[in-house]
Amino acid sequence: MLRSVFRCLRTNPVAGQRSMSQSSLAGKVAIVTASTDGIGLAAAQALGKRGAHVVVSSRRQANVDKAVALLQSQNIQVTGTTCNVGDGKDREKLVQMTLEKCGGVDILVSNAAVNPFFGNIMDSTEDVWDKILSVNVKSAFLMTKLVAPHMAKRGGGNVVFVSSVAGYQPMQALGPYSVSKTALLGLTRALAPELAQSNIRVNCVAPGVIKTRFSSALWQNEDIMDEFKKQLSIKRIGEPEEIGGVIAFLCSEEASYITGETITVTGGMSCRL
């Protein structure tokens, strides 16, 4: 029996390469925005553990320093800098620094998001909408526009947007935020065919409720979580690492025929057909 299995692996090496190699992203450079904690940090860890040089950023230098120290302790190649992705000069500085220190860019994980409003959507103001759409949607596109020419020079690349299950099923009291996450689903589909011409794949991840500081108002409320878990097949909230692994997969050769797609990582929440 074992001999036949080994013969199969020799004649069909792909069968023995189903799991992602720890060096599957060796030589790649990955920019991950808002990457000093939560999903962003988990994405940086997942990409770095597979061999990528990760560029992490946050608005606060102290957070950057802490994330860089953690990743270095895990033997991950990392460069860090401050960046407010809502600021055009900061976006340009982030990309330029990456080019100067790492020689290019192959992967963009657009994770930065804000939510300054909680309440009835009809009570939201113009300032709230401007802030949310500027950071959550516009900056995601403009970062992609900045890095795409540099990816093309290296023969292609990968862009991954971090959306949310709220993009499919708007969450009560999070109306404007939910709309911004729906926009990322459309941005993924709009960019994919254009950038495919440069061998750049564009995909999206839509997490459910994940145990991060950003979503703590949800998972720390027992009443909300008890109600939420009724919608789940897996009766628990997700961990950031479970999103980071999906992001790393989408940036790997194992996903080389996937573009324009959104993967929902929700514990089985029924958010679409």
TrEMBL record:
Gene3D superfamilies: NAD(P)-binding Rossmann-like Domain. Pfam families: adh_short_C2. It comes from the Eukaryota. Keywords: Oxidoreductase. GO terms for molecular function: carbonyl reductase (NADPH) activity. Belongs to the short-chain dehydrogenases/reductases (SDR) family. This is Dehydrogenase/reductase (SDR family) member 4. It comes from Seriola lalandi dorsalis. The lineage of its organism: Eukaryota, Metazoa, Chordata, Craniata, Vertebrata.
